[in-house]
Every structure is written in C-alpha cells, then in structure tokens.
C-alpha cells in the first residue's frame, strides 16, 4: 500500500529538522499528489463536459440567439412550444424508428456472429480484422459510399434488386425506404464492433459448461440460448444501453444522406432529434435547440432504463 | 476454445457465413475504390462497373483542386496525433491514481467518471460552441484538441488495466528505494502501462480522425479536417460520385493501412476494454 510508515531504514537523517522536513515532504507527496494526477482529467471534464451540460439547461430557459447579446428569460416557454411542435414529434418518431430498425437486427446478428467466431477456426484474425473494418471507416465515408449504392438510377443495390423484378426504388424519398437505407449504414458500421465485444464476453464463459452440454446432446443453438446468452447477460445489457444512447444521437447519417440539408429530406422524412437540434442551432435559435437537447436527454434516460429492465429480465437464468 | 464445431456440414456452414460477412464488410470499400478510379460518366453504365479503371490519379488531382485537401490532411494528423498523445498521457496519470493510490474521494470520483461515459456528448454541444466563441477558437484546431485532451473512457480503460497489471509490490519496492510518487509513475508505472496505452492511443487516433459532427460545427470549409473536407466535397458535387468517392478513399486509406498493420492489437484492446462486468 502507498500509505506506509514514513521512516525508512535506508535513509537516516542526521538532524531532527532535516528529518521533519523529509517527513513533511513525504506526507505531502503521498496525501496530495494523487489529486494532481487526476486534476487534468477533472479540469477538462468540468470545463468541457459538466459545465456545458448544466449550461444547456440554463440556455433552454431563455430566448437565446447568437445575434443578440440580450437573452430574455422565458421560463419553460421553449418546452411548452416544443410539446406542440409537430416537427419535434416527427423527429422523435424518426429517431425511434431508425433506432429500432438499426439496433434490433444488428445486435441479434452480432450475437450470432460472435457465437460463430467463438470456436476453433482457421483465419480467426482475418475474420476479426475484416469484421472491424467498417468501424474504421468514417461516418462521412460510409454515407457517401452508401448514397452511391442506394442511388435510384445507377445504384448497385437497385441493380441487384432489378434481377428479381423489383423496380427502381427511390430510397431517399420515402419514410420507410430512407429509414432502411440509413439503418443499413448504421448496421454496416457497428455490427462487427459489437460482435467483437460479445465475443470477448463469450470467451470468459467457463468451457466445462459447454462440455457438459455437449455430452447431454445439446445442439449449438440450444447452447447459445441456454448457456451463452445467460452467461454474457451483463455485456448484453451494456451493449444494448450504449447502442440505445448511440441510436438516440444519430445525426451525421441523415445530415449527409440529405446532402447537407438539416431538415432530413424535403418532407423531413428522416430528420432525427439530433438533426432537429442542429437545424435550430444553424438557425442560431440556441434557446430552443437547448430545450430539445434536454428533452432528448430525458428520452435517453427513459430508453436506457426501459432497456435495462427488459434485458435484465428476459433470457432466463442458468438454474 | 469450446464449443466445438460438430459435423463437417456445420463447419462448412460456419465458414460460408463468415466469408459472406467478410464479403459484405469489404464490398462497399472495394466499390468505392472502383468508383474512385473511374470517370463519373462510367457510373451510368448498365451493368455498373465492377472493377477499377484508370482514372484514379486524375480524380485525385481534381480533389486537391476542389477542396484544400492537403491542409485538411495536415490538420487531421495534427489534431488526431496530439489528442492521442495527450489522452495516453493524462489517462495513464489518472488511471495510476485511481488504481493504486489512496486519497479521499477516490471512489466517488471514479464513479462519476464511469457515469459520464454514459452521458451523450451531443447534449452539451451548444454551450460548448458558446465557450469556443468566447475563447475565439471557432475555426481553429484548438476547438477540437483542447476539449478532447483526456476523456472518461481513457481514464477508465487505464484504471482497469493498471489495477490488474501493475503489481502493488513493485510500487512498494519503489517506495523503499526512496522513490517519490512522481518517480514511481515515471519509472514503474509507465513501462507497465505502455502496451495498453498504445492501444488506447490507436483507438483515440481513429475516433479523432473520424470525428465529424463537432468539427463540422466549429470549423470553416477554408480550414477543415479531412472529414469536413469530404463532406464539402460530397455536398457541393452531388452528381460527381467519382470525385467524392476519391476523396473518401484518400481519407480512409491512411486508417485502413494503420489498421491492417496493427489490427490484431487494436482488436485485443477493444475486447479487453469490453469485459468490464
């Protein structure tokens, strides 16, 4: 332990005062220096993390634009207006829709892939590296590439679909089709990453459980359902919650898919909450944008809480 | 590694599935190289072009003519590089204190650190912008670097690693030899922390390189990072996919190369960081 007795046998000071000085320096070092080590983190966190969060609440109570130095206090007016704003509810619907369409299949696929990789395989490293390759690709690159793939006239996806007699789909125009396109981008980027996190958890599951199950004649799928999933439940809860938080924050995909338009398509068919914040930010209406931010925070807490309860309950126990 | 593959049929099926996954992971990247090496008009062909053409160099020149791409590359290297170094250093420092030193309020602070990892960053983006306006850092790389100097994930990652990998006896031996706490950090902690810090540095570099939303808000198109330049390229030249995908390829290539070389370590780091309970 770091708090050991101050007198050390190696250095015996000659005078009392010298000894006292050394003891003081030592005590100071042990007691105070830990604070110095965590200080850079705390400073950055307070200035650029905590303060902005609290300040958002303050700004949301004002009629606050960047154009004027006078910020009139309006109480909860921004929130009252928000609740009656159709654009806000539209953005909420789009966020939930894109969130579900992208997260649910993604996590199921990720668990299945991790299950497949959790065996002695050749080229294990190659599989893992390629799984993570999409995650190394930036959001901008992903959206630019997929916008091309989802192109109405010359896109690769419509070309493949035409083999099956499907007519050219205008992916960008419809609500459902644009949500599928954006969800595909999110899935492509994150499935492999989550599969690796599940795989890490699966490798910590004691192997004799599987041995016993194999002797009892349980199939691979039964083993996945009855052993693996209950055993990695803490990781599943963690991934579900981080994915929920991520899904609530989707912004770059719809922004770029709509070629930079903050409305998320001409009919706002894929404007997410974060994009709605950005739209009002770009209009310099900071008060309103802050109010939306806080509502989004409330939604995130609710969604994370609900997911926490759901994932903890489902899946049965190992008994 | 159990469970074992059962029959030969199951084994084949597993490999086929994984090969399909590899195919779909690599396909969009491959196709962007195809488009980037073509003339834009070739994209209207039926069937679409499926292999690279010879137009890449011409497209690259056009990218550099259209947006300040050299400056963007320089900015991105500067920003991602300095953030990665700072995060490695400050996270190891704080991680050492949280993992091995005793001080009042340690557990409370650690709890706050973990909690903040869950708080969405976008919530504070408006006040953060107001701060940058006050500091007159809008349009400058300071606005990207300073808020990112150290983060909760890095501190947590290093705390986890050091509490496991750094033997307390080693620190006690150092104390007996008359080391100050700073001396312990420098001579004992840093050498032990190096592998984990390297992984953290690579992860940080990648996410800083790919960061888009905050740079878009706070920077100008005249002094961009790579991602901001790419979005300018994509937004201004919607119809010219060859041009925007050339930019995408150029901006992604450095990371893909780094990743291909160090992928194994990076994956190890992600999987280590994942098992937190």
Task: Summarize the structure in words.
Chain A: InterPro entries: ABC_transporter_permease, MetI-like, MetI-like_sf. Chain A: This is Sugar ABC transporter permease. Chain A: Residues 92-307 form the ABC transmembrane type-1 domain. The complex is a heterodimer of chains A (319) and B (277). With 319 residues, chain A is mainly alpha-helical. Chain A folds into two domains: 1-50, no CATH class; 79-313, MetI-like fold (Orthogonal Bundle). Helices cover 70% and strands 1% of the residues of chain A. Chain A has 13 helices and two strands. Chain A has helices at 16-60, 77-83, 86-117, 124-136, 139-149, 156-162, 175-202, 207-215, 220-231, 233-248, 252-257, 273-282, 286-313; strands spanning 62-63, 72-73. Chain A has a two-stranded antiparallel ribbon with strand order 1-2. Chain A is flat and about 95 Å long. The two termini of chain A are 40 Å apart. Mean pLDDT of chain A is 86; it is low at 1-10. Chain B is mostly helical. Chain B folds into two domains: 8-58, no CATH class; 67-236, MetI-like fold (Orthogonal Bundle), CATH 1.10.3720.10. Chain B has twelve helices and no strands. In chain B, helix 3 runs antiparallel to helix 9 (181-210) and helix 4 (106-116) crosses helix 7. The mean pLDDT of chain B is 86. Chains A and B meet through helix 1, helix 3, helix 4, helix 5 and helix 7 of A and helix 1, helix 3, helix 4, helix 5 and helix 8 of B.
Provide keyphrases for this structure.
heterodimer; A: 319 residues; mainly alpha; MetI-like fold; 13 helices; disordered N terminus; B: mainly alpha; 2 domains; transmembrane helix (chain A); transmembrane (chain A); cell membrane (chain A)
